[in-house]
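Next comes a single protein record:
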Amino acid sequence: MSVIPSYPLEVLRFLAARHARLPAFHFRSPQLHWRPVLVKWTVDLAGKLRLSLTVSHLAVKLLDYFMDKHSIRGAKIYLVCACCLLLAAKMESNKRAIPTVSDLSIHVDGGQFAKKDYASIEMMIMESCGWNLIYPTAAEFSQVLLDTAQVSGNVSAWVEYFLDGALKVGDN
């Protein structure tokens, strides 16, 4: 007899199957040395916008896969981070929690980029992902398990602590 009810178990199976089919990740990004700074910036922005940990994890995963295939120069790298966060929020949040381009541009560029720049980068990211933004993350798996299991608040707090810490690797 399974401890996990059938619906969440099906969700976990789906996520595991999708994870097994993710494209290869090569760690060949020309910007790889910038990754710790970009992850910190993305997670900090998610915090300012009150986005969830699952949004942060998906945004970082989208960023990693996109950077693996593209060379990004100058201030556009932060535009890419913001667009990854926006796409992740669209996938993981309810409609009211999704930031607007105006919300993002305050933190990204002070108005340097137009709405069409955000839309263009969003399209590039989606094309790069084959139009499938279901990239399972540790935060997503954990959320399904925590929502299903009857665990104390202490367990949830520890899971959140370690998931948050996973995004801060390389951050002193």
